[in-house]
Every structure is written in structure tokens, then in C-alpha cells.
Amino acid sequence: MSDEDQEHKEDLNEEESSELVEVDEEEEVDELEVDESDEVDELDEVAEEKVPEKGAYLVIGQGEFSTVMSNRGADDPGDNTLSAPQGICKFGEMLFISDAGNHRVLVWDRFPEENGEPSNVVLGQEDYADCLENRGLSTTLDEMTSGLGDENLDGFTI
After folding, report:
1. Which of 3, 58, 77, 108 has the fewest CB within 10 Å, making it most exposed?
2. Are residues 10 and 18 in contact, defined by beta-carbon separation less than 8 angstroms?
3. Are 64 and 117 spatial neighbours (Cβ–Cβ below 8 Å)?
4. Which positions ≥6 away from 110 have C-beta within 8 Å?
5. Domains: count for the chain
6. Which of 108, 67, 102, 65 minimizes the C-alpha distance to 82?
7. What is the distance between the alpha carbons of residues 43 and 12, in angstroms, rounded to a whole number?
8. Structural domain boundaries, residue 17
9. Same domain, 148 and 135
């Protein structure tokens, strides 16, 4: 191969390599544009989701938001009243509220949907109207002194 042929071949190689670099740069730009449009689509999907309103939308233990009275102002507690609630726990669809002022735990089978919705179960008292500490007796294993939950078991422990 002559020197002239060798130079011509080197010139061709340089031109091809510079063209390849240009093509690669254009492809990268195209890829970036596609990625940016994908991100915009994701943001549009997030914007379409319902944004929660500010503040509370439900009150438990009172009939309305403007009332702040132990047991809704009644002498005895009921299935939809609280006195000094101290703890709340959602377990699956169930809701547990530790009602310290009434020495009990109220349980809803599903999360309440209306203000003041009555509970389904009372734990720690004979019935909803009782509120004596330890049911008026000394402490035993079936009476509530306070509530706590443990989800490490197959069920819920109070």
C-alpha cells in the first residue's frame, strides 16, 4: 500500500469516527427527551389523584367538631362517647381507641364513616354505661388498666 493510499484510508477512518460520535450524541439527546416526557406523564398522573382536604373530616366520641365534652356531656359513658382517650390503633379494617377516662377500650369493626358513630365492642367494662376503674374491684387479667397493641402475633393483643 502506497503512502498516498494509507493517508486516504486514515482520512476516511477519521471522518467515519467523527460521524459516529455525532450520531451517538443525537441518540443521547433523543433518549433524554423521551425520559423527560415520561416524567411529565407520571407527574400528570399524580396530579389527577384526589388530594386530601386540610384538617379533620371526622370526629369520634363527639357529635360534632365544636363539642368538647367528656362523654358528650352525659353522666355515664355510651357506645359513642370518650373521656380522655389516650391511644388509637388501626388493625386491618378495625379501629381500637383506648378510653382512659372510662377505663376501657372501644372497638369498631370497620373505620367509622360518620361523626359520633357508635362502637361495636367495649373491652374492660361489663357494658357501655360502666366506667369504674377495675370494675370497682382489684385488678385481674380480664380488666383494662390501659391499652396496648401487639401486631407481632397472628392476632391483636390488648
Report:
1. 3
2. no
3. no
4. 93, 94, 95
5. 2
6. 102
7. 47
8. 1-51
9. yes
Domain final residue, candidates 36, 51, 66:
51
Model pTM? 0.55
Place of cell 393483643: 157
d(CA 45, CA 152): 36
Q: Are residues 76 and 39 in the same domain?
A: no
Residue type, 153: L
Cell of 103: 377505663
Q: Are 128 and 121 in contact (CB under 8 A)?
A: no
The model's pLDDT over 41-94, given as tens digits with 9 standing for 90+, comes to 555 555 555 556 778 888 999 888 888 899 988 999 999 999 999 999 999 999
3-state secondary structure at position 42: helix
| Statement to judge: residues 43 and 56 lie in one domain | no
DSSP 101: G
47 with 62, same domain: the answer is no
CB of 110 closer than 8 Å to CB of 119: no
And the C-alpha cell for 127?
357494658
Cell representation of residue 98: 383506648
Can you say how many angstroms the Cα of residue 25 is from the centroid of all Cα atoms in its chain? 45
